[in-house]
Amino acid sequence: MVDPDTPTTSFIHQIVRADIADGKNAGTVVTRFPPEPNGYLHIGHAKSMCLNFGIAHDFGGSCFLRFDDTNPDKENREYVRAIQTDVRWLGFDYTGHLTHASDYFDQLYVWAVELIDHGKAYVCSLSAEEIRATRGTLTKPGESSPYRDRNVTENLDLFARMRSGEFTDGAHVLRAKIDMAAPNINLRDPTLYRIRHQSHQHTGDLWCIYPMYDFTHPLSDAIEGVTHSLCTLEFEDHRPLYDWILENVSVPCRPRQIEFSRLSLDHTVMSKRLLTTLVDAGHVSGWDDPRMPTLSGMRRRGYTPSSIRTFCNRVGITKKDQRIELSALENCIREDLERIAPRRLGVLRPLKIVVENYPEDQSEEFTVPNHPGDSTMGTRTLAFCREIWIDESDFMEHPPAKFFRLAPGREVRLRYAYYITCSRVIKDNSGRVTELRCHYDPDSRGGGTADGRKVKGTLHWVSARHALDAEIRLYNPLFSVADPRAETDFDFHDFLNNESLVTLGKTKVEAAMEQHSTGECFQLERLGYFCVDPDSATDRLVLNRTVALRDSRPKTHT
RNA sequence: UGGGGGAUCGUCCAACGGUAGGACUGCGGACUCUGACUCCGCCAAUACAGGUUCGAAUCCUGUUCCCCCAGCCA
One of A24, A135, A161, A262 is an active-site residue; which one? Predict the structure, then answer.
């Protein structure tokens, strides 16, 4: 599924279009989305998915979901499962195109042997430290390994014994024989295989040697007939190695690697290492914490798949470093929810109002629309009685200019109900306002009067007698600075926002929300968009605020 | 100081030798039973210096700044 407004003008689209025009790959287009199952997918992965599945869709090709699972140390099945869930949730169908790099281990081994046979790879018995020490630096060439000129027979024998489990981890590696003096460090005899006596999430204990990314990736692409291998900028330096592998192994086709810039979002981090740390250290409740930029976190927060796709398409594909403002993302989800979210009334920080001229034993109901702009969404019933709750922030004893809400002597409208005027303010010993006394105008039933007088302020409210208790969780950015990693002496602890989660335990929402199901979304009028958190139960309602409504008020009131 | 990339409104994207345009943000205004939505308007950019050309964001030369690379991670 791809949005109708998907841009088809990125530089990658232009390259693909040109390749097709040139008759390359017999006019076919095959891409792949290759996550490593070592963590959950995040919004940056969504950008990659939209690109890869999008290109395949736009040119009538196909896109593989391929697990890049060559490092058993870090990968596990929970991640594999979560990734599949997230890809499908985002709206991409990989039926018949689900693969693993580890599916190709046999073929990869054969190709490694082919390299050895041709004198293009050798078994190196240096330790990891020794290899590092002889690699040279950015400005100094490396030195050849003493094992560089091992003969083919010996290499073949050693490599076979590596596979059979004869050696301990780290005893040997297989290296490509390229150029220890190459200015590109990736070409200084890169490691192709390492020994890991470690069981693998997909292949179990079949292997004790595992191929490296640089060897595996181009070959997996070739096996799958990938025509355009799209990856992020940090792999640009690896392209010569990618091409070297394809040129020196008898592959069925020649994929082309093209790089684009990765996505950075203000006030969060996108590196899996950091996200893993946040989870492991308990700074968040898990990978699906609504503050996380992960797809599972955003889903729980209330983001819709289409809002995320729209965002990715809007952000575009270039080679320029991107740093996107949060407002761009928030705008996308507001746009979506504005259309589809049923309206409800709820109160975050309840302040009691007693409507003194409304009879104690009376109550009544109003039938109100679920969406003022979309009558097909139906209606619901709102109950009213003598005691109601409004939000604390909707009253000020000494209001500044342009405060349209309640104040002593002021008349406001209770949404869909009545006009009320504040007649008395009741405070506790500390001077805090604890209750308001008001009177209502019976002629304003439904929210308007025959005299047509203007009432500027309209407040959300709930009937105290009928309201439901709820817990509402408000979210703010995880980090207090836009780009925590740009800070000198970066230690993310210094920039964690300790107000990223604000839990309001005593909120009141209208009775219509008694029936709820996880993930359901609403707009609480004037407050924002909310969704039902999985922590809810039949007798407990927990709401996450997905995003607040835009606020064009002159000053900052909350 | 090696190699690989990148520089267009505050942010993101477009313009592919011919009027620098759009989105987000910000600021005004209209409308409004959500200070929402919607609508209208405004502010705001070609890193710098030369050159080629009738004409340059685009081509050439030089400079500056930013990002990535020294895993048996991906």
Answer: A262
